[in-house]
UniProtKB/TrEMBL annotation:
InterPro entries: Pyrophosphatase, Pyrophosphatase_sf. SUPFAM superfamilies: Inorganic pyrophosphatase. Belongs to the PPase family. It catalyses: diphosphate + H2O = 2 phosphate + H(+). Keywords: Hydrolase, Magnesium, Metal-binding. Gene3D superfamilies: Inorganic pyrophosphatase. It comes from Cucurbita moschata (Winter crookneck squash). This is inorganic diphosphatase. It is an enzyme of class 3 (hydrolase). Transmembrane segments: none annotated. GO terms for biological process: phosphate-containing compound metabolic process.
Length: 211
């Protein structure tokens, strides 16, 4: 064999796969579902994990695809408004609309869709969306030094609450959809709402397992 043939053979030789890579390829894996597989956290309902669906400052309405667990693009907002804070859901909770509990998280920075963080409930925003109850938990990031000291919604500047209310009142107007926002409620009501949604989720899982 000539030196040229040796060079070609070396070039075309398939490298051996790393054993860790090879073993991972041979195993069948299932992607984690953020609603069902992510723990809500040991300190819930006061402090809980939150999966971010929509980034602060975004006009894109991202939403959890309940079947796959992926974050999908639902639509672009019709109105010239953006989400005032990071928005997402609390894992292992269930509300009467068959979705997980919604949560708006106040913090300094935008967070990428699909990430999760620790949040602390400080209040509840009662909301009616096209005639159906669609309450939102108002929370702060438990690990943000600027916001983590807030414990109740009454501690927020009035303008901040007005900003949040106005966004939810307006963001569907150009779709001819009616949204009504009632007075914000204190942290105790928020904790009760989260606990109720945790209990409802547990009942649903128990009922499913009994089938």
């Amino acid at each position: 064999m000539t030196s040229n043939e040796n060079a070609v053979g070396e070039k075309n030789r398939v490298p051996k796969l790393n054993e860790r890579i090879l073993s991972s390829l041979s195993r069948r894996s299932v992607a984690a579902h953020p609603w069902h597989d992510l723990e809500i956290g040991p300190d819930a309902p006061k402090i809980f994990n939150c999966v971010v669906e929509i980034t602060k400052g975004s006009k894109v309405k991202y939403e959890l695809d309940k079947k796959t667990g992926l974050i999908k693009v639902d639509r672009i907002l019709y109105s010239s408004v953006v989400y005032p804070h990071n928005y997402g859901f609390i894992p292992r909770t269930l509300c009467e609309d068959n979705d997980p509990m919604d949560v708006l998280v106040l913090m300094q920075e935008p967070v990428l869709p699909g990430c999760f963080l620790r949040a602390k409930a400080i209040g509840l925003m009662p909301m009616i969306d096209q005639g159906e109850k669609d309450d939102k938990i108002i929370a702060v990031c438990a690990d943000d030094p600027e916001y983590k000291h807030y414990n109740d919604i009454k501690e927020l500047p009035p303008h901040r609450l007005s900003e949040i209310r106005r966004f939810f009142e307006d963001y569907k107007k150009n779709e001819n959809k009616e949204v009504a926002v009632n007075d914000f409620l204190h942290s105790g009501v928020a904790l009760e709402a989260i606990q109720y949604s945790m209990d409802l989720y547990a009942e649903y899982i128990l009922h499913t397992l009994r089938r």
